[in-house]
Amino acid sequence: MGKDAYDEHIVVADEHLRMVLDLLGNGATPESTDPRLGLTLVQLADVHDLAARLEQARKEEVPDREPEHVHGPLDSVLGNLRAITQYRYAGWSPTLGKNRILTGVQFKPYTNAGGFTRPTRPEEGEIPRAYTAQPRSGRRVRVGILDTRLDPHTRLGGRYYTDPDALTHVQPDQERQWWEGHATFIAGIVLSLAPTADLDVRTALAPGTTPDAGWTMPLWTLAQRLADYRDSGVQVLNLSLGCSTADGQAPMVLERAIAQLTPTMAVVAAAGNHGTNELEDKDREDQGMPRRAAPLFPAALDGVLAVGAVDAQGVPASFNPIDGKDETKPAPWIDVFAPGVEVVSTYLDETGDQRVQVPIEKTKPVEYETVSFGGYANWSGTSFASAHVTGLVAAQIAGGKTPPEAVQAVRQDLPRP
User: Fold this and answer.
1) How far apart are the first and last CA of the chain?
2) b/e sequence 207-230, b meaning 16+ C-beta within 10 Å
3) Which CATH number fits the domain that encloses residue 381?
4) What separation in angstroms does the CA of 413 have from each of 218, 227, 389, 406, 410?
5) Catalytic residue at 182?
6) How many domains in the chain?
7) Alpha carbon distance 388, 369 (integer Å)
8) Is 147 a catalytic residue?
9) Is 383 a catalytic residue?
10) Residues 368 and 403 in one domain
11) Which of 147, 151, 200, 335 is catalytic?
12) pLDDT tens digits along 37-91
C-alpha cells in the first residue's frame, strides 16, 4: 500500500458502520474488520468525488455549518459526515477517523536537527558493565517492545522473544542503516535496569526505499499489533514511536487500541524529538517534523506514561516538545523525564565487520559515512528516556508491585524538572 493509499481509507466503529456506509453510498467498501478493536477499515473509491458529494449534501441540509480542520479531501469527507450527523442527531456523530501514517520518533531520521538522532561510537570506558540477575533477586516480568527489528546481541542473549519478522538476519557484507539499531539499543537499556525482564519484541514497520526514508506504519496496522499484546502476558509496553496530527487531536484508532491495554498493563511512550529550535521552517518541513509544541501520540493519550529526556545533570533536553506558551519549558503533557542525552547501550555491528551508514551532521543534502560500532553506541532521544522509564517500571513489578502501582512509584521518583 503506497502512501497515497492511506488517504483512501477511514476507520469506523463497528456499531456505526452500516450508518456510515449508507451516508457514503457506493463509494465505500469495508476492507478489514478487527473484533478486538471493534473497528472496520473502509476503502473509499474516489475521495475527491466523495468529498464533493458530501459537501453538496451538507450545504443542502446544514447550510450554516462549515466542517472544521479541513486540510484536504479526506478531511472534507470526515468533516461533512460529522456536520450532517450532528445536525440530524442533536450533536451526536458516529465514531470514525483517518488511517493515518505513523512515523516513528527515531525511525524518521531527523538528520539535521542538532545531532540527537545520530549515534556515535562510544569510548571503551563508556560501555556499561554486563547486567546480571540472580534467580532470587526478583520475579520475571514480561516487557513488550514494539519497534524496529532486533539484532541478535550477546548482551541480550536468552532474554527476548520475537516474531519471525522481528529478528534481523544479517548477511555477510550487508550495509546497515543507523536507525536499524533502535530496538537493540532500547532492549539494552531496559535489561540494564530490569535484568529479570523477558523482552517480547515485535515490529509492524515497513522500511523505506532510501537510506533516509526511515520506517513507516499505517495506524490500522499499529492498532492491530497493539491488540496482539492484550493477552500476551506483557506487563509493561514500551512505545518509542509516535505520530502527530494537523489539528492536535488524538487519532481515534490509536486511542481505541491503547484504551484496551491500559487496564492491565503499563504503557510507556516517548514524547518525541521535535522540540528542537535548530531547524529552519523549510528544513523542518522537509524532514517531516511536527511543530515544536505539537503533541505526539500515543504519548499524549490518557493512561500512557509520556517520557521526556534530560541530560546527566537533570536538565531537560532541547529537543523535548515545548510548551507553546513558554518555549523554555517542556510540553505540559509530558509526565516524567529520564536520561536521554548521550546514552550508551547495545547496538549494531557487534562483530566489527559490518558497514553502518551514519549521517554526517548538518550536511545539505544529507551525506553519510561508514562507521563500525563494535556492538555499542552513544545516542540521544526521548526514545531512550522512554526505555529507561520502562526499565524502572519493570523493576518495580519484579519487586512485587502491580503495573499501576509500579507506574505510580516511578511518577513519584521522577518528578517533572
Assistant:
1) 43
2) bbeebbbbbbbbbbbbbbbbbbbe
3) 3.40.50.200
4) 35, 30, 10, 11, 5
5) yes
6) 2
7) 29
8) yes
9) yes
10) yes
11) 147
12) 999 999 999 999 999 999 999 999 988 877 776 778 999 999 999 999 999 999 9
